[in-house]
Amino acid sequence: MVAKILDGQAVAAQLLTDVATRAAGFAERVGRAPTLATVLVGDDPASHTYVRMKQNRCRQAGLDSVRVELDASTTTDELVERIAALAADPGIDGILLQHPVPDGVDEHAAFEAIGAAKDVDGVTLASFAAMSFSEPGFASCTPGGIIRLLDAYDLPLAGRHAVVVGRSRILGKPVGMLLLERDATVTFCHSRTVDLADRVAEADIVVAAVGRPELVRGDWVKPGAVVVDAGYNPGNVGDVEYDAAAARASWITPVPGGVGPMTIATLLAQTMDGAERRHP
Ligand code: NAP
After folding, report:
1. Rounded mean pLDDT of 236-261?
2. 266 assigned to some structural domain
3. 10 lies in a domain?
4. What is the pLDDT of residue 165?
5. What is the domain range of residue 82?
6. Residue 1 confidence (pLDDT)
7. What is the four-CA torsion angle of 248, 183, 170, 62, rounded to 10 degrees?
8. What is the per-residue pLDDT for 104?
C-alpha cells in the first residue's frame, strides 16, 4: 500500500478563501477589517518567523494584524498588562501570544489574560474545557487544524483507535480530547510510555506530536492506518519516518505541507469566528 496524501496546503487554501470572503463581508458591514493582535516576547528567530507567516496570511485573507513586540526582559506583570489592554480593546478580535515566552515569564498567566472571548489560538484553560466538552469556544489551533484536515477527506473517527504520541498542552492533550469528542477511542503516549512501538501498532489513527525527528518508525504503523505528523524538526523532518510509514499507511500528512498550513488557517478562521461573534 502507498498512502494517499492529506494535503494540508490545499485544504488550508480552501479554508482561507472562505475566510477572505467572510472578512470582506465583515469589513463592509462593520467598517473595519477583522483584526488579530500578535504578541511576541524576546528575540527567538523561529518565533519571529512564525509571527511573520501568520501576519502575511492575515494580509492575504483581508484581515488586519497588530503586532506587539516586547523585549526579553519583560516581566509577567508587564506582559499580562499589555495583553489585558488588547483584551479590552474593541478594535481587536483575537489575540495570539507566540509560544514560547522567555524563561522567567509565566506563560500560563499571560495566556489567561487573553480571556476566552479573544482566545482564537485556543490556549486558555476555558478554551480547553470548552473544547473537551464540545461547548462553544475556540479549539487549540494545531489540534483543530488536524481535525479539519481529517474531516476534509471524510475520514471516519468514531470507533477508531487513535494513538496520540505526545501530551503537551497545545497539541497532544487537546488533539486527544477532540478525537475523543468525535467518538474515537484514544490512547495518549508520552516519554514514560512503555512499549511505544506496540501502542502505535494498535492504532487506526496515529498522531505524532513529539518534536523528535522520525521517532515513530514506519514499521510500527499498522497497514492501512492514518498517520498525522504534527512534528516539525530542523531540516523539514517530521516526527514520523515518512517513507517507511507511507509504504504502510492509507493516508499520511507530508512535512511540510500537512499540519502546518492547517494551523495557520485555523487561527484565521477562528479570528473570523470571533469577529463575527462580537459583531453579529
Ligand atoms: P512538547 O511540549 O515538547 O511536548 C512533547 C511531547 O512529546 C511531551 O508530551 C513528551 O512527553 C513527549 N515525548 C518526548 N519524548 C518522547 C518519547 N521518546 N516517546 C514518547 N513521547 C515523547 O512539544 P509540542 O509543543 O507538543 O510540539 C511537538 C511537535 O509538534 C514539535 O515538533 C513541534 O515543532 C510541532 N508543532 C507543530 C505545529 C504545527 O503547526 N505544525 C504546532 C505546534 C507544534 P512528556 O510529557 O512525558 O515529557
Report:
1. 98
2. no
3. no
4. 98
5. 31-115
6. 75
7. 90
8. 95
The total number of structural domains that make up the chain: 2
CB atoms within 10 A of CB 165: 28
Q: Which three cell numbers stand for residue 124?
A: 486558555
pLDDT grade for 156, boundaries at 50, 70 and 90: very high
Q: Catalytic one among 55, 93, 98, 229? A: 98
In this prediction, residue 14 has a pLDDT band, given cuts at 50, 70 and 90, of very high
End-to-end CA distance of the chain: 48
Give the mutation target among 168, 192, 212 for probing the ligand 1 site: most ligand atoms within 8 A of CB.
Answer: 168
269 CA distance to ligand 1 middle (Å): 24
d(CA 258, CA 240): 13
Residue 131, φ and ψ in degrees, nearest 5 = -65, -40
Report the predicted TM-score, pTM, of the whole model to 2 decimal places. 0.97
Integer Cα distance of 32 and 26 in angstroms = 8
- Return the residue matching grid coordinates 483575537: 94
Mean pLDDT of the chain: 97
Q: Helix 8-30 and helix 141-152: axis angle, to 10°?
A: 110
Q: Within a domain: residue 248?
A: yes
Q: What is the rounded distance in angstroms from the CA atom of residue 211 to the CA atom of residue 50?
A: 16
Cell matching residue 95 = 489575540
DSSP 86-112: HHH-TT--EEEEPSPPPTTS-HHHHHH
514499521: which residue's cell? 219
Residue 267 in domain: no
